Amino acid sequence: MSVIFITGSTGFIGKEILKQLTAGEEKLLLLVRSLKRATAMLNELGLEQDERICLLKGNLAKPELGMCDADLNRALEADIVIHAGGPMSVTLEEGAAKQTFLDGAYHITELARRIHHTRGLHHFIHVVGFMSPFHEGNIDMEADVFELEGFMKGEGAYERMKFLADLYIRQQAKRLGYPLSVVNPGTVIGAKPAGVTEQTGGIGILVNAVRRRLMPVVPGGRSHWIPFVANDDLARMIIHLARKVEPSSNTYTILEDKASGPDMHELLTTISNELHLSSPRLSAPMPLLRSFMKAGFGHLAGIPAESMSFITNRSFQTAETKRVLREMGSADINVRDVIPMVIADLDYRFTHPNYISPVNFTRERKGDMAALVRKGDGIPWVIIHGLLSSADDFVPLAQHLHERTGSPVWLLDLPGFGRSPFLGHNDVPDAYIDALHQIIATAPGRIRLIGHSFGAIIAAKAAQMAQSHIEQLFLLQPVLHRPQSLGLQHWLSASTKLSKFLLKRLTPKALTNMMLREGVFSEASEIPEKYVETIVRNLSSPRIAAANARVLQALHYRLPSISPVDFSNINTTIIWGTKDKAYTLPEPFHCFSHLQLVPYAHHFPMSYPQETAQLLNRL
Q1: What residues contact 328, with CB distance under 8 A and at least 6 apart?
Q2: Minimal CA–CA distance to 235: which of 30, 5, 1, 22?
Q3: How far apart are CA 125 and CA 117, in angstroms?
Q4: For the chain, first and last CA: distance in Å?
Q5: Which residues are CB-neighbours of 400 under 8 A, at least 6 positions away?
Q6: Single pTM value for the model
Q7: For residue range 95-119, what is the model confidence (pLDDT) as tens digits?
Q8: Residue 68 DSSP code
Q9: How far apart, in whole angstroms, are the C-alpha atoms of residue 603 and residue 589?
Q10: Where among 133, 152, 185 does a domain terminate?
Q11: Name one Pfam family in it (predicted).
Q12: 334 inside domain
């Protein structure tokens, strides 16, 4: 059984490596700066009881990696070193970058030297970056990396120090004679298929610039691009290299081919479309843009001049990577399908910078929608939200359902809401119905489908298309007619553009008054804590504001009709809150065989999640 020493295990790349490694048998030694943070990460990943994982407190920038004697002795038992440590922060100052990367390279190669001297180091794997100029054929063994002051002069300290660390680690591997694999990934985005991208640098800089309308031109035009790689593809290849019985020294550039990846024009068009904003049409030469950024515009716009280094017109040699991918039985690197999910995820992170993920839920992808998933056994509960809401708003209901039944719960974000991309879904509600139908039809078994408000109509229509997959259908306060509103909601529905404009300017007070006036809640005490503030913040995202504007239009002008006869072959229950003021239960549904009246307002699943879960479980 191999022993692997890993730096950067709590980072974006390292965490994915760790997740995948735990499916194997290796003993894992993790160098971490904070035991508390690392323990929280293991709890988050469900690995807190894994006896093969050992946390070693230390610091890359310190001699002997800052470890105590006991931890250092454990580290010296390693057969393999995976060095993925260091922050993704292109604006690092010179001193911090030198300590992290160059001093870190010195200290970790000292560890490698001691291992190799006493027992033989099987393999050293170093994660660098796709713009590193070094490879097996150009290593100057006499160069003193600590004195190369002219190297990449004028470029940011982050890349200079990272690449000097690359050179130093290559030099030491050659001198000492252990195998070294240098992994040069493209800009790393979230793992497929969900594209959850915790690291907001890289493509996140572009997404944030577009959403703030600070990207009026296409950097470099169609000849330039940003090479990408999904985090899971990168981790899978690193682990394959780590498990090689007879490793050899080589460099692996892990990214998609230029011909298959989006160029800058296509990428910015995709970002703009997903954010429902106009895309830039004019291009600007990279030297001119770099000059503007360095002159201070980058600081004002929040676009670091150093980030321009990730935009290139180069093609890269990927023959060795493709050879290893064939060896693994994997396809070539391709990220097109996941990019819209990445954009939506990043947009949500910028909209909610202090967001805390609910405990015991994971971010997944179901069809073309983002999902919050609570694992369990049995038939899944699948919940669809309505106007102004998202998957996160139904977490309390999901928790109560899981506690009562032990079954899995899927909370879906409709396209454009929460973390779900638009994906070209311009036809609301038909596109929503089709997207949900695809999820239901491809589910591994039957489901219990719950829809609230507008989401209940989407659920009802999708269920009709996939009746054999539905165990039960629950419609919570379905909007069965156009809302009876002459107030704010009426003006919000006037046109999509006007709706979006007005929604983005809603204040918490105006929204609260509207909700109370129209029976969304019967009294202020029913409104969940921070719910109104969360909606207002959601609507600051042009993507989410546009999605709500489209649903408002659909509610008033394109609402699909349903009748009791539609559910003759589906086990359907309608739960209706009698304190709703904008909607009433149409006459044909008064005698519906499975109708449950409750003394609540429109948003009762959020106001009374425990009571709603109890009712759903009983019916």
Answers
A1: 236, 237, 240
A2: 22
A3: 18
A4: 52
A5: 609, 610, 612, 613, 614
A6: 0.95
A7: 999 999 999 999 999 999 999 999 9
A8: -
A9: 20
A10: 185
A11: Abhydrolase_6
A12: no
CATH number of the domain bearing residue 497: 3.40.50.1820
Under a CB-based contact definition with an 8 Å cutoff, are residues 471 and 447 in contact?
yes
For 345-362, b where at least 16 C-beta lie within 10 A, e where not — what string? bbbbbebeeeeeebeebb
Bridge-based pairing state of the strands 369-374 and 361-366: antiparallel
Output the six-digit token pair for 137. 């054929």
CA distance 33 to 58: 5
pLDDT at 423 > cutoff 80: no
Q: How far is CA 192 from CA 90, 267, 420, 433, in A?
A: 25, 18, 14, 24
Residues 6+ apart with CB under 8 A from 45: 15, 18, 19, 22
- Structure tokens that stand for 528 in this block: 């969940």
Lowest mean pLDDT among 221-225, 226-230, 291-295, 472-476: 291-295
Cα(543)–Cα(422) distance, integer angstroms: 8
Per-residue pLDDT, 9: 95
Residue 263 CA neighbour count, 13 Å, CB half: 13
Give the DSSP letter string of 520-542.
SSSSGGGSPTTHHHHHHHHTTSH
- 319 or 424, higher pLDDT: 319
Burial class (CB in 10 A: 0-12, 13-18, 19+), 155: middle
Strands, sheet with 361-366, edge to edge from the N-terminal-most edge strand: 361-366, 369-374, 409-412, 381-384, 447-452, 470-476, 572-577, 595-598
Please compute the mean of the pLDDT values over residues 245-269 and round it to a whole number. 96
Tell me if 312 is assigned to some domain.
Answer: no
Phi and psi at residue 506, in whole multiples of 5°? -65, 135
Q: Residue for token digits 């009746």? A: 467
Indicate the SS3 state at residue 122: coil
Tell me the longest C-alpha to C-alpha distance in the chain.
Answer: 88
Q: b or e along 184-221 (b: 16 or more beta carbons within 10 Å of the residue's beta carbon)?
A: bbbbbbbbbebbbbbbbbbbbbbbbbbbeeebebbbbb
Q: Measure the CA–CA gap between 306 and 319, rounded to whole angstroms.
A: 29
Q: Which two tokens stand for residue 506?
A: 């809603």
CB 411 within 8 A of CB 373: yes
Residue 220 domain flag: no
Q: Which of 139, 165, 185 is the last residue of a domain?
A: 185
The answer to whether position 204 is within a domain reads: no
Structural domain range at position 552: 352-618
Q: In terms of DSSP H, where are the helices of 3-66? A: 12-21, 35-45
Contact (Cβ atoms closer than 8 angstroms) between residue 601 and residue 521: yes
Three-class secondary structure of residue 361 per DSSP: strand
- Cα dihedral 308, 309, 314, 320 sign: negative
CATH (domain of 23): 3.40.50.720
Q: Report whether 425 contacts 591 (CB < 8 A).
A: no
Count up the domains in the chain and report the number. Answer: 2
Identify the residue whose tokens are 């988050």.
44
